[in-house]
């Protein structure tokens, strides 16, 4: 079954040649014990097992199940869902090359070739001695410095065939991945480590987030306010969720606050996974205190004592930095009991690391993942604000949204409301990548046109711009006057620029393969329909499409959008629909009717190729030229 | 649900027909009670609602929702049997046919199969336009009394819920994700689990297709005299209205 390009298969279930050493039961018991034998901490348990033994072997699943009072199949359901967990052994060093369309256009293939050459294994394979695994993974949030890779927990960016060779040879020589960053890695601070691996590329700092930010000014104001006053301020500012959906933040907080249950939760969604988005990465690196401040303010507003920071597995390199920030704030009395000396104001946060699943950016799936379950969206209603994490009222906001909220409490609702446009207030972080001179982060008030942004970033020869990542809209030059606002071109932040040399169908096919790979598989239309869409696009790419296939694309897309259970399936046909609308010639050019009204979609040569290889001989009937 | 809540009755309409409901009921539960059939595959009486097959998609207040999980609301206008919704449902049923390997003529569930019966009800009578995915899934015949042919599985998960909630066992569960998401068993194979042929999960009413097969009882009722040979799927619900 075609599942896109990823050599490792959807769940990393590729068979491997190395053997699993028997894992002492006492060690599994110790790992489970460390997380209180709590089934809701399953993802943490499995992370530990994976890090230590390079896989979740069947015998360990039995042991984990017995310690956490689950069945083995429930443990397997979680272990087999996430890309970074594996049921078969991975190499002690696992190299995951980022397979985003931007990385492909920046020379991914050459980098892959170098790694294959030096390590002596192909993509999707693990070396026989168990030292290395080489695979690809969808967008890891480094599109401004592509091609990029994760080597265990170390990030490599702006790779070239030369730097890739140096890195691969060092690894082959037995050096630790950390040594690729610095010889003095252990002496560096968590922040130094992060910025040595990954550039921030802040190209334009705005007034709210990336300009000067006074320490805890918002929180200091918030503790003197009643919860309802905090909510009023956030609502009056006009702040809307910055993750993409754009729900009014103040209303969300108000709904959660009005629920009369004894526990409330505040969860930060740091799972930006939309290909081309990397703004939260920069905020997590440069404004982590502002983020936690925003979460703490939200906790006071809705009456939450517990919080979770859900960090995408791809950003594991930021874990130490963030854990350090949480620890520092506990020490300074900004988290924990009696925050800022205010009696009864209690709030603390745990960091939950994801494990490679785009769907976990969806609110309900993110909550499922925090609960130790496969990252599947929840049935709505009930909505998370009334019944979320463990069944309690839960506010889930994105990193940027919490940071904005903290600034609003500092500078006031009017200040924020005055920026931007009607219906889209304040500033927005845009992560710009692709064919432009200055890829990186731009903090701008809402309301700029795409053209203005292109001039700023040095991308005026753009032929197409993908606004909002694959689930957003792809526009052509005739639409560059359109505005970046919720009412016109809504975006979670991703702006991907393509020049006239790029093949639109290749881009669309990549985005569909991404959705096929990242669908959770819960509902029929998303699980199956996206595979059909991808196959149909491949037909266009091969020049085998009829004009009727355009109707087929529209028709099938309509069914998937209308019947899917969550936002992934409701937006996954967008790469096709928006390019059909804005680049119709691309499709009509490759879907001409044939003279006899029939187009041959069956290629006998490729159909018999497998059999030909097994039999080690040619076909007298079908091989046209036997001398080939 | 408390007695008073149950008494809080209200009405809404499905295709213009007034339906009585009470707080806490889903659209489908109220429709079933009133004798209006809404097609479904993953939902089954006595099991938790899952909302995954999406065949029960209806329009409620202009929005498309799964009738098996969406709460009924007072005064709501629900569309059920419209040409548009029937087309959506047929697409979904076709997707399920194309995702697995469904060879009706040689399947012992033929005539008793809800997927097949749903295809007939939704007028899927010709060759379809979707590509076949032709998966190759292993057959599990390890258990003395039960065989599993997951090539015919439509991932409805009814066996998972029946085993967990009715049998109190947990013989089945989902593994993998996306197009690789599958129903699997709690062990190396079925013989490795505590499954018994007398489990509710193994009964012919739980598996809607021919995936869970009870050994030595195949073809006991001849084709032509089977459940859906006699009437369309859903007729027993619709007969309540007559």
From TrEMBL, chain A:
Instruction: Give the NADH-ubiquinone oxidoreductase 51kDa subunit iron-sulphur binding domain ranges.
Output: 505-550
Q: Which domain of life is it from?
A: Bacteria
Q: Which cofactor does it need?
A: FMN
For this UniProt record, give its keywords in alphabetical order, as a comma-separated list. Answer: 4Fe-4S, Iron, Iron-sulfur, Metal-binding
Q: Name one Pfam family in it.
A: NADH_4Fe-4S
InterPro entries linked to this entry = NADH-UbQ_OxRdtase_51kDa_CS, Nuo51_FMN-bd, Nuo51_FMN-bd_sf, NuoE_dom, NuoE_N, Nuop51_4Fe4S-bd, Nuop51_4Fe4S-bd_sf, Thioredoxin-like_sf
Q: Does the keyword Metal-binding apply?
A: yes
Family label: Belongs to the complex I 51 kDa subunit family.
Q: What is this protein called?
A: NAD(P)H-dependent oxidoreductase subunit E
Automatic annotation (TrEMBL), chain B:
The record's CDD domains line, in alphabetical order, gives: fer2
What the entry lists under InterPro entries is as follows:
2Fe-2S_ferredoxin-like_sf (IPR036010), 2Fe-2S_ferredoxin-type (IPR001041), 4Fe4S_Fe-S-bd (IPR017896), NAD-red_Hydgase_HoxS_gsu (IPR016214), NADH_UbQ_OxRdtase_75kDa_su_CS (IPR000283), NADH_UbQ_OxRdtase_ferredoxin (IPR054351), NADH_UbQ_OxRdtase_Gsu_4Fe4S-bd (IPR019574)
Q: Which residues form the 4Fe-4S His(Cys)3-ligated-type domain?
A: 84-123
Domain called 2Fe-2S ferredoxin-type: residue spans: 8-84
* UniProt entry keywords in alphabetical sequence: 4Fe-4S, Iron, Iron-sulfur, Metal-binding
Which Gene3D superfamilies does the UniProt entry name for this protein? 3.10.20.740, 3.30.70.20
Pfam families, sorted: Fer2_4, Fer4_Nqo3, NADH-G_4Fe-4S_3
Span of domain 4Fe-4S ferredoxin-type: 144-162
Q: Which family does it belong to?
A: Belongs to the complex I 75 kDa subunit family.
Q: Which cofactor does it need?
A: [4Fe-4S] cluster
The protein's name is 2Fe-2S iron-sulfur cluster-binding protein
Source organism (scientific name): Roseibium porphyridii
């Amino acid at each position: 079954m075609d599942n896109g390009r990823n050599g490792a298969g959807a769940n990393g279930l590729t068979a491997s040649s190395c053997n699993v050493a028997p894992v002492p039961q006492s060690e599994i018991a110790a790992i489970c014990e460390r997380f209180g034998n709590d089934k809701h901490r399953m993802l943490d348990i499995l992370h530990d097992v994976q890090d230590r033994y390079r896989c979740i072997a069947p015998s360990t699943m039995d042991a984990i199940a017995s310690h956490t009072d689950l069945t083995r199949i429930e443990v397997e359901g979680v272990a087999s869902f996430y890309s970074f967990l594996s049921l078969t052994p991975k190499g002690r060093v696992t190299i995951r090359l980022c397979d985003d369309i931007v990385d492909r256009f920046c020379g991914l293939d050459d980098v892959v070739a170098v790694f294959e050459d030096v390590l002596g294994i192909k993509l999707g394979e693990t070396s026989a001695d168990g030292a290395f695994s080489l695979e690809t993974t969808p967008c890891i949030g480094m599109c401004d410095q592509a091609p990029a890779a994760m080597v265990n927990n170390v990030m490599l960016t702006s790779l070239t065939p030369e730097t890739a060779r140096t890195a691969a040879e060092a690894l082959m020589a037995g050096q630790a991945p950390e040594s690729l960053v610095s010889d003095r890695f252990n002496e560096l601070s968590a922040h130094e480590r992060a910025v040595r691996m990954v550039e921030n590329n802040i190209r334009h700092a705005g007034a709210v987030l990336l300009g000067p930010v006074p320490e805890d000014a918002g929180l200091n104001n918030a503790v003197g306010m009643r919860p309802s006053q905090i909510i009023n301020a956030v609502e009056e500012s006009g702040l809307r969720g910055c993750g993409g959906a754009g729900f009014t933040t103040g209303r969300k907080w108000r709904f959660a606050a009005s629920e009369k249950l004894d526990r409330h939760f505040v969860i930060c969604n740091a799972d930006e996974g939309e290909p081309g988005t990397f703004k939260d990465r920069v905020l997590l690196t440069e404004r982590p205190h502002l983020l936690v401040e925003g979460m703490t303010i939200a906790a006071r507003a809705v009456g939450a004592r517990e919080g979770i920071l859900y960090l995408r597995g791809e950003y594991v390199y930021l874990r130490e930095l963030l854990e350090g920030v949480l620890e520092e704030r506990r020490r300074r009395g900004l988290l924990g009991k009696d925050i800022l000396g205010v009696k009864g104001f209690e709030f603390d946060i745990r960091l939950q690391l994801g494990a490679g699943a785009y769907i976990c950016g969806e609110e309900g799936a993110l909550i499922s993942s925090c609960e130790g379950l496969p990252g599947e969206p929840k049935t709505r209603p009930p909505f998370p604000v009334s019944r979320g994490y463990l069944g309690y009222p839960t506010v889930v906001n994105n990193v940027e949204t919490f940071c904005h909220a903290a600034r609003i409490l500092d500078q006031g609702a009017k200040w924020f409301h005055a920026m931007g446009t009607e219906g889209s207030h304040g500033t927005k972080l845009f992560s710009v990548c692709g064919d432009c001179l200055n890829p990186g982060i731009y903090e701008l008030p809402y309301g700029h046109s795409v053209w203005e942004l292109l001039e700023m970033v040095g991308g005026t020869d753009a032929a197409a711009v993908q606004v909002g990542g694959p689930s957003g809209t792809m526009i052509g030059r005739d639409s560059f006057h359109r505005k970046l606002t919720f009412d016109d071109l809504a975006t979670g932040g991703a702006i991907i620029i393509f020049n006239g040399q790029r093949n639109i169908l290749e881009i669309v096919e990549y985005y569909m393969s991404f959705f096929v790979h990242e669908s959770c598989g819960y509902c029929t239309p998303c699980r199956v329909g996206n595979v059909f869409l991808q196959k149909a696009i491949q037909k266009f790419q091969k020049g085998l499409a009829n004009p009727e296939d355009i109707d087929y694309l529209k028709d099938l897309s309509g069914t998937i959008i209308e019947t899917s259970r969550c936002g992934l399936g409701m937006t996954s046909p967008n790469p096709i629909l928006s390019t059909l609308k804005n680049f119709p010639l691309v499709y009509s050019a490759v879907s001409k009717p044939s003279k006899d009204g029939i187009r041959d979609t069956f290629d006998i040569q490729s159909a018999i190729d497998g059999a030909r290889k097994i039999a080690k001989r040619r076909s007298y009937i079908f091989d046209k030229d036997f001398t080939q | 649900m408390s007695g008073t809540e149950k008494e809080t009755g209200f009405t809404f309409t499905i295709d213009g027909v007034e339906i009585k409901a009470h707080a806490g009921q889903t659209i489908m539960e109220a429709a079933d009670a009133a004798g209006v059939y809404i097609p479904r595959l993953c939902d089954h009486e006595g099991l938790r609602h899952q909302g995954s097959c999406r065949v029960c998609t209806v329009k409620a207040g202009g929005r498309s929702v799964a009738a098996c999980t969406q709460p009924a609301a007072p005064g709501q206008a629900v569309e059920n049997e419209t040409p548009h919704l029937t087309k959506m449902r047929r697409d979904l049923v076709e997707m399920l046919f194309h995702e697995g390997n469904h060879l009706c003529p040689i399947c012992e569930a033929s005539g008793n199969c809800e997927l097949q019966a749903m295809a007939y009800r939704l007028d899927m009578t010709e060759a379809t336009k979707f590509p076949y995915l032709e998966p190759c899934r292993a057959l599990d015949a390890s258990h003395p009394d039960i065989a599993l042919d997951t090539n015919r599985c439509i991932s409805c998960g009814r066996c998972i819920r029946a085993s967990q909630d009715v049998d109190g066992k947990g013989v089945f569960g989902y593994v993998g994700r996306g197009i690789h998401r599958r129903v699997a068993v709690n062990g190396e194979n079925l013989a490795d689990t505590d499954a018994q042929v007398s489990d509710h999960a193994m009964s012919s009413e739980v598996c809607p297709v021919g995936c869970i097969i009870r050994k030595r009882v195949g073809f006991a009722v001849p084709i032509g005299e089977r459940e859906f040979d006699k009437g369309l799927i859903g007729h027993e619900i619709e007969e309540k209205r007559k």
